[in-house]
Each structure stands twice: as structure tokens, then as C-alpha cells.
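Troubleshooting log. The previous structure file for this entry was overwritten by mistake, so regenerating from the original sequence record. Sequence copied from the archived sheet and checked twice against the printout by T.R.
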Amino acid sequence: MPQFRPLAVAALLLAGSLPPAMAQLTALIPKVKPAVVVVGSWRATDNPRLGFRGTGFVVGDGRRVLTNAHVLPEALPSEAAAPLAIGIPRRRGEGAEVRRATLLALDRRHDLALLAIEGTPLPTLPLAAAREVPEGTEVGFTGFPIGGALGYSPVTHRGIVSAVTPASLPQASAQQLSNQAIRELREGPFELYQLDATAYPGNSGSPVFDAASGEVVAVLNMVFVKAGRESALTQPSGISYAIPIAHAHELLRRASASSGAALPAASTLPSKSLTD
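Regenerated output below.
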């Protein structure tokens, strides 16, 4: 049985001596969390009815959600399959409001997907400009690290951009080259941000935001696993990877071009800093 001990006294003692970056993150988290949603499927006869697949975050006009392509089913839902849905967490992890979602645009190469959702607009996150983030930049990311096991309450982790690295890592021999790696060699590599931060499988699709401005600089998409899949939970490596936000800008532009005025162009996405 896990043991939980009160930390209120320690928190009070430390509150007056937080370093600037930590204090800034403390102010940002309440602004980030309302825009972070569960991405999954929904069917009334399933248990649970909301099937968790990953994390997403709201952008643009408040009815668009960015997530990872690998979070979605391999094939588009059929009549018999559970439809795509997002879950909007209620306060204190007390379940989630569910809304139906549809796929607007997909970029499997960069592991990104854009969804449209029904209902009133949700709070959005500002996207950073499409430029490389310097190594050493302090970042945070918010998502659902182990799904709904502890309730749908967004969790924030922090770290730094420790390296800018190729998406396809070198292989020891030709026999180890995957189809994805071969495709990268043909099309040319693109770069990922390597983060010095602990993430878990449910964090896929989480917004990675600059800890100073709150702007989203990347989308978390994978973790380095030292052994089997179980070790991602029991022995996390502390190494995670994220897709630079430039590729999300391109996906938004493509979706805007294919749907006319229905989607805001990337240049019209909110640019106001969350620190304002």
C-alpha cells in the first residue's frame, strides 16, 4: 500500500525561496491544465466508456486538438468501432466531460494529428514560432502519464531540452533498419528534441511548453525504454523525445488550406504569452 505523507509544512517553508524558473512554472500550470484533454474513444456499452489512448491539447479556435498520430487507431473508425472522442477533465479528477472528435489532418511521418471537436470552444494554448529551441531551455509538459488509473487529472513534469537529435537513431547493422528508418533515409531526416525529463506512455501528445513564456514548443511523442514495455513504468529512463512545433504549424496550414475558412491559419493562432 503506497504511503502518502503530508508535505504542507515543507511547502510553506519553501514557498518564499523558490527559484525564478520554478515560480514561473507554478504560475503557468493553472493556465495550461484547462487546455489539456484526454484523447481516446467512446462507446456507451464499453467499460470504461471513455477508452484512454493518450493526451492532446486545444489550439486555434478552441475546437481543434493536437495530439500524436500514434495515439489514434491504425485505421479510421468503422461503424462497428468506437468513435474518436476527447475527455475534458473535471476538477479534482472526478471523471471527464466527453465530446465526439473527428480527424481533420494527419502527419504520420512527424507523428502528429489534428482533431476537430464539437461543442463550445475550450481554453487554448499559444504555439511558439517555428524556430529551433536552444539546448538548455527549461520546459514543462502536462498530460496523463498513466491514463485514468489515478483519475483524469492532468499532471505536469519538467526538464530541459538536452539535445537536438535526428528522428532516426543510427542502427548497428542493415538488418536492424525498420521500414520507418528506411523511409527517413530516403526522405531526409528531421530533428527531435531530446528532453532530460521523465515521461510515461500516457504522456504521448502532451504539450511541451517553454517554462518562461508558456508557449508550446513541441509535442511529446516517445520515451526511451531501457528494457521491456513494463520498464517504462517501473524503471523510467528519464529520456523523452518531442516533435518540434514547426511541424504542427505545417499541419495546421495544410488543414486550413483543405478546409477553406473553417480552420484558422497557423499565423492567426493565439500568440499571447501565458505569462501576460
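The radius of gyration is 19 Å. Archived copy saved in two places this time.
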